[in-house]
Structures are given as C-alpha cells and as structure tokens.
Amino acid sequence: MGNICVIGVGYVGLVTGACLADLGNYVACLDVNEAKIDTLRNGGLPIYEPGLDEIVQRNAVAGRLHFTTLYDEALKGCEFVFVAVGTPSGVEGEADLRYVQQAIQDVARRLVQPLVIVNKSTVPIGTGDWVAEIVKEHQAGRVAFAVVSNPEFLREGSAVRDFMQPDRIVLGSTDRAAARQVADLYAPLQAPVIITDLRTAEMIKYASNAFLATKISFINEMANICEALGADVHEVARGMGTDTRIGPHFLSAGLGWGGSCFPKDVKALAHIAAMHGCHPQLLRAVMDINYDQRKRAIIKLRECLGSLRGRTVGILGLSFKPNTDDMRDAPSIAIIHFLQHEGAQVRAYDPVAMPNARRMLQDVVYCKDPYEAADGADAIILVTEWNEFKHLDMKRLAASMRQPLLLDGRNIYDPVRMRTIGFTYLGMGRGYDENGKARAKPAGRGL
Amino acid sequence: MKNICVIGVGYVGLVTGACLADLGNRVVCLNRNKSKSDNLKQGILPIYEPGLEEIVRRNYEAKRLDFTTSYDEALQGVEYVFIAVGTPSGSEGEADLSHVTQAAEQVAERLAKPVIIVNKSTVPIGTGDWVADIINEHKHNDVPFSVVSNPEFLREGSAVYDFMNPDRIVLGSTQRQAAEKVSELYEPLQAAVIITDLRTAEMIKYASNAFLATKISFINEMANICEALGADVKEVARGMGSDRRIGPEFLGAGVGWGGSCFPKDVKALAHIAATHGSHPQMLRAVMDINYDQRKRVIQKLREILTNFRGKTIGILGLSFKPNTDDMRDAPSIEIIHMLQHEGAQVKAYDPVAMDNAKRILKDLTYCDSPYKVAADSDALVLVTEWNEFKQLDMARILKSMRQPVLIDGRNIYDPERLRALGFTYRAMGRGHDANGQPL
Fold first, then answer.
1. Distance between CA A19 and CA A26 in Å, rounded?
2. Exposure pattern of A79-94 as b/e (b: 16+ CB <10 Å)?
3. Is A203 part of a structural domain of the chain?
4. Is there a single domain that holds both residue A28 and residue A86?
5. Position A95 confidence tier, pLDDT thresholds 50, 70, 90
6. What stretch of H or E contains A190?
7. Are residues A169 and A265 located together in one domain of the fold?
8. Are residues A56 and A168 in the same domain?
9. What total of structural domains would you count in chain A?
10. For the residues of B310-362, what is the DSSP string, one character each?
11. Residues A82 and A137 in one domain
12. How distant is the Cα of A133 from the closest Cα of chain B, in angstroms?
C-alpha cells in the first residue's frame, strides 16, 4: 500500500486514481475545480467511462479513495504524486504546460518528505527535466525528490481495462531507483515494465500515438486509391491485417480520427520536431489525410445530391468514437459545419454525446433515436460506429427517408445487403459493386 | 498431385516452383534462357537463397521438378500456370508488363484444355482483368480458362520458410471456383486463406508492402526527431513495439529500405494512384524520408571529417539487407556514389553480395574481411547488419584504422561500449544529448 496523490480528475487522473485505489493504495484525487470535486463526492462522475463509476464508488466507500480541492490535505504523508492535469494544444500545436507548472509549484512549496513525482500527462519531450527545475526553484528545503515519466496508454471507452491489463508500463527517469518504486505500484498487474530515460519515455508516448494515427491515415490513403481503382479497402485491410508484421488493429478506413489524444499529440510532435530543425513530413501527411477524409463525406453527398441547399441530412453518431461522450475534435463537428455551410438542415442522434454536442453544434435537430434522425432526410451519414447502429431496422430507416441515400462513414454495413434493401449505399474506399465490377459514378443530381 | 507450369525462374518463380514440387506436385519451370535452365538442372541456382538449392536438387532428382525453355513442353497437360516473371519499374514507377503480356500470349496460343492462370508477379491493380483480355484475344478455341491473382509474400533470405509457413494465402478471382482450386494446392500448409476479387487481391499486395515501408520510414522520421531532442530511438521502438497494436517488426531505424520489392512497389502504387486522380501524399513522404536517410550518413561523416577528399571510407555490408546477395536499390550503392562524388576512396566487404556489387560499383577496393576494410580507413560505415558484424573484434578494428570513426547505419552496436573503446561513434537516432549534440 502506498500513499498517493493524483492531481487532475480528467479521464487520465480519475482512471489512474480509482484504479490505484482499487489495487489497495490510499489515494487522494485533487482538482482545483470545486464543481468537479463536489460531483465526485456526491457519487457522480464528470466524464463517461464504462465501468469507472463502480470502481470509484466501491473505493470511496472503502475509504481508499477521496476527493479534495486542498493541496495540504492531498499531499499529507504522500509518497507519490501523479500529475495528470490537462495539456491543451496551443495555436501552433505546442502543448500548453501552464497547468503542469502550477501543479508542480504547488507541490514543491509543500515538499516536506521525500517524494516521487510521476508525470502522467502527455508532455513535450524535455518536460521531465523542466519539472525537476521548477521543483528545485520552489522548494523551501532540500528534501529529496525524483521525477518519473509514466505515460498513459488508456483508450477512452476501455480505459479501466487498459489500466488493469496494459501491454507494458513505460517508466522514464534519471533516477532508476525512483522508477523501480513506481514499478512496484504496478507490480500486481504483472505487465512488462520498460525502464528508460526521461526523454525517451516521453517520446515513446508521442511516437506510439503518432504511429497509430499513421496506420489509420495509411488505410485512408489506401481507401481513396481503392475507390479510384475499383478495389474494396475493407478486404484489403483484412488481407493486410493477417500479416503478423502488420496486424489487424487501426486498419479501418473511414472518416478518420479525432478525440483528445491523436490530434493533439500528432500536432504537438510535429511542432516540437519542426522547432528543433526537423522536417516531420510523414506526420504532416498523416494530419492532412485525416482532415481531408472529413471533406470526402461532403464530396460524396454532393456527387449524389448535387447542391446540398435545402436538403436534410441525418447524422448517426457524434462522439469522436463509440463508447465515449467525448466530442473533442470529433469528425462530426467538421462534417456538420460543412453541411450547414452548404445550406443543409442537420438532424442528429448519438447515444451519449448529445449533451456535450449541444454546447458546440447549434441549429441541429437533436433526435431521440436513429429513426427520428432519418425521418424525412435526403441522406444519412453514419459518422460514429456505435454498436447500436449495426443492427438497425434498415428497411424502416429507408422507408422514412425522403431519399434512401446512406453514406457509411465507417464501413459497418454490408454494401450488397444495403443495396438490396433499396439504399443508394456509399462506403469509404469500397469502389466495387455487387458484381465485383468497378463502381460506376453514382447517378447524378436529384436521383 | 497436380501438373503445374511456372513461368519465370527469378526469386518468386523458383521458390514457388520448387516448393510446389516439394509438396508432391509435378512442376515444370520455364524460362527463355537456355544456360539458366541447364544450370538449374545441375543444381546451380541463378540466385542465392538459403535452403533453396537443396529443395531444387532433391525434387529434380525425384523427377517432380524440371526445367525447360520450351512453352510446348512446359504447358503439356498442365492444369495450373503460375506467372512469376519480372515486372521492372519504368521511369515513372509504372510496372513494365511486357514479360507478363508475352507469357499470357504464349499460354493463350497453346490453350488446349481448361487451365487456371495464377498471377504471382506483383502487377498493377487491374492486370488480372487485362491478362484475361489478352488470352481471350489470342486463344484459338473456346476452351475455358480463369485468372487468379495470388500475390507472393516471400522475403529474400527466408523465402522458403515464408512459402511453407505463410501468415495467409490471398486469392483473388472473378470465379470463386478457380480460386478454390488454387487454394487446394496450398492445403498442406494449413494457412488462413482469403478469397476475394481480383483487384482487391492485387491491391492487398501493394498495400501490405507499402505499409511495411511506411513503418520503417515512420521510425526513421522518429529517429531524426530523437536525435534533435536527445532521446534514444531504439528504446522508443522497444516501447512502441510492445504495444500489441503496433508490434515490434519493421521498427529498426537506420539507413532505410531498398531491395527489389519496397522501392518498386511503393513507387508503382503511388504512380497508379496519381494516374487515377488520387493524391498519394503519404506514399510520397515515405519515399522521401527513405532516400533522405542515405544522405544522413554523408552528413554525419562530414560533421566529423569535414571533407572527403583523399579520405578512405570503409563500408561494411553491401546487400540491401542481410542474408541475401541482392543489390537492387541497396542503400550502399547510393552511399558509395555520394562518397566517391565527394572525392573519397572506398573499400568494402560483404559476405555474399560482392560479386553482384562488382557489376554495379566500380573504382572501389573489395576486401575479403571486415578487418581489411578497416585497415587505414578514416571512417567505417556499417550499412548492412549481417550477423557476422555484430561480434567483431572492435579493439583490433580500432587499432588498424587511421581515424577511429564509426557510423553505425543500423544501430547494432552499444554506443557506450564503442565510445569507451575510443571510437568516435555515431548511430541513427540515438546517442545525442538534449541539445541534439552527439554524445
């Protein structure tokens, strides 16, 4: 059992705190936002994450997890401080470190016993060294401390499982003993531990996310080539994915990635690289391809409908991926803006993200279910592949539409079945028709 | 047992023919070069591929495998024709299909009973349909035939193993029955079989190779960022590779890829894409990064030696990767040209590729050991990570050099150990401090 303080109750902080408590440690979660702490004390969660609710409740009741806004209270007798505050993107993609700086200063001023400061936030390469300098500047005495970088690899929607069953734990520090102490906290998980230097640990996080984003942009580039040549990217991905050196993950062509990690991390890494004289051309291509995919949704609709002025378009799914209410940089936002800009009316449905979406997307008719979103629409676009969209009553959906045009932005439907039902079906990178012939351009204006 | 003809005795044709014979079929391998055929009958192979020679000899002696230059002889009574001829790159990266065309015409002229034409060559998307058109044009009767695309995923150096232990068999055809008949040939291998349409099968091959090339260019971009920031790309690759969605393969930073597949396939796919209105910007970045890596070697050397005029540079490894004698688009070629262009004398050693290299690279001293390469050199560049370079007597090497400079183009050495020995050591993406200065 260790005494742990976790600063920040966002996705990362809350999952880390709750899971560390669940492993038997005594954890204080600290956030300066009183409203969030009040919510947590009353048994609510400021975010949606499957399974987290139960773990928070259970450990709070057991007295292993508590929430506070007071540094003095949170740091009392604490051996580890996990920093998990937000690092928003600046204009140029540089990570904004003001919350990290604030947290570290507040910790440093209260340093009375040896402490291991563990950085969980995704921070630019070199931040670990910078944190150590801040502590030295602001600490009153000469109490020993160490800084360890311990990047998180949690996915929204499966964050609890990812914490409990990690592929690996990465720990970077100039102080190997401190890294080992942190490794001890994770010992119950029986995962491989990689101990390296600070900068390399920080780089591992960026490089891993950037690679996964690259894999998606790669398959999207392939999707566009498949469309032009009459091949099916869904099958291409299956063929590629069975190669053990490639693997099946992150090979789904579609409207591209969004969320709070990939966009921020890829942009930040490209920024850091350029600021140090590198020319990150692959990362730039990865971002370009990703943001162009969102525009392809509009191009495809325009090919079928001609002008979008006065058309009604139904959107299925708003969150940036399924099983989360996170709307940050979700493809749906850009797509809805483009549609509205071209004069279309937008109706939308999402199982959990609508409250968040309302704050960002105006002039949208929010619907109570997918059928209502399709009602009277000239087209529907599936933007987020929630499971509940996979077995809809598609006949009913088609019948309620003004025109049965379906743009499957995530390739979740069987093209042949959809065409049999009567849909004009458009996938992403599936350029052949039911006879295996290259798909002719869809019928022109007005259908 | 089936009767099979394989057209082409390059890497792909010979491995395919020999392995299909080894699985119990009767295989005739056809090529138009008589001396190649005669040599093969004596067990002399036109290429170096571990384990292949034994399989060729054994199956030739068992009369399951034969070689000929005559189409009439090769096509006698066959049910399957595998086309495995070369598809060299044209100037714009377009695949040159003249050999494929010729093979298809010859088969069509002699079409006497139903045959399945299996395309093993890496051909542009749409070639399967086009081969069918050629046969329809040139055949003299109504004998049915079908075309199946069956891309190969063989790696030079482990091609026999790869044939016998595939991750998957990809078969594309407009006629599912024909694809299923080809899958029967592979049944003994008990591998996953993916049956799809022609164009998609053709695309799977290009996309798979392009992805692996992308993975290497990605880690090379990371290597350059690591150098600038003082991180270690080898550890970064270890950290990334343990993520099972990423995997550890093809994450070795270095002087980049070469060979007969990646350069040709990535270029061809980019070309096909662009001529169909796509903008293959990732593929282009992947190629740019790869060819820039070779130049970084020169840059690193220049930082230490200032200029190359009158200097002697030793090259360890010439083939594009270990365990092959293949010199096609090997990074060593460009690196040696650049060094010579800047006035350096070049010495080189490679365990098996020197014969091939001699035809491509002139004006350099070929040595019969790494130690002779090192003697009196101003710098050594490790270009190909042959195993035999991993445990050299580095103290002996150091002593024999004029200047103890070592550029480790494949990150195979331990930086601390080599620096302790006294080397001025530079790797790719590691061994730099927080300001990007070499340690």
1. 11
2. ebbbbbbbbebeeebe
3. no
4. yes
5. confident
6. none
7. no
8. yes
9. 2
10. T-EEEEE--SSSTT----TT-HHHHHHHHHHHTT-EEEEE-SS-HHHHHHH--
11. yes
12. 15
Domain of residue A47, residue span? 3-196
Are the C-beta atoms of B286 and B213 separated by less than 8 Å?
A: yes
Question: Looking at the structure, do residues A192 and A220 belong to the same domain, yes or no?
Answer: no
- The candidate with the shortest Cα–Cα distance to B432, out of B286, B295, B303, is B303
CA distances from A359 to A304, A353, A362, A363 (A): 31, 11, 8, 11
A398/A379 Cα distance (integer angstroms): 10
CA dihedral over B3, B9, B12, B14, signed as positive or negative: positive
CB burial of B325-354 (b: ≥16 within 10 Å; e: otherwise) equals: bbbbbbbbbbbbebbbebebbbbbbbbbbb
The pLDDT tens digits for B61-97 are: 999 999 999 999 999 999 999 999 988 887 787 888 9
Give the CA count within 13 Å in the CB-facing half-sphere of B377: 28
Exposed e or buried b per residue across A313-341, where buried means at least 16 C-beta atoms within 10 angstroms of its C-beta: bbbbbbbbbbbbbbbbbbbbbbbbebbbe
Note whether B246 contacts A211, CB cutoff 8 Å: yes
**How much of chain A is in helix, strand and coil states, percent to nearest 5?**
45, 15, 40
The Cβ of residue A373 has, within 10 Å, a number of other Cβ atoms equal to: 25
Measured CA to CA, the distance from residue A109 to residue A86 in angstroms comes to 21
DSSP string, B268-283: HHHHHHHHTT---HHH
A316, A419: one domain: yes
> Which pLDDT value is given to residue A431?
66
Does a structural domain hold residue A438?
no
- Chain B residues whose CB is inside 8 A of the A277 CB are 228, 436
Judged on CB neighbours under 10 Å (0-12, 13-18, 19+), A421 is: middle
B226 is catalytic: no
| Nearest chain B alpha carbon to A240 | B208
State the Cα–Cα distance between residues A6 and A12, nearest whole angstrom: 10
Domain membership of residue A53 (yes or no) is yes
A147 part of a folded domain: yes
Higher pLDDT, A443 or A99: A99
Instruction: Spell out the domains of chain B, with CATH numbers in brackets.
Output: 3-196 (3.40.50.720), 230-426 (3.40.50.720)
Q: Which of B29, B226, B261, B367 is catalytic?
A: B261
Q: Indicate if A230 and A274 belong to the same structural domain.
A: yes
| Cα distance between residue A385 and residue A382, in whole Å | 7
DSSP type of residue A209: H
Please report the residues numbered 253 through 272 in chain A whose beta carbons come closer than 8 angstroms to any beta carbon of chain B: 269, 272
CATH number for the domain spanning A56: value is 3.40.50.720
With 70 as the cut, is the pLDDT of residue B157 above it? yes
Residues A286 and A342 in one domain: yes
Q: Coil, strand, or helix at residue A63?
A: coil
pLDDT at residue number B432 = 85
A437 has pLDDT over 60: no
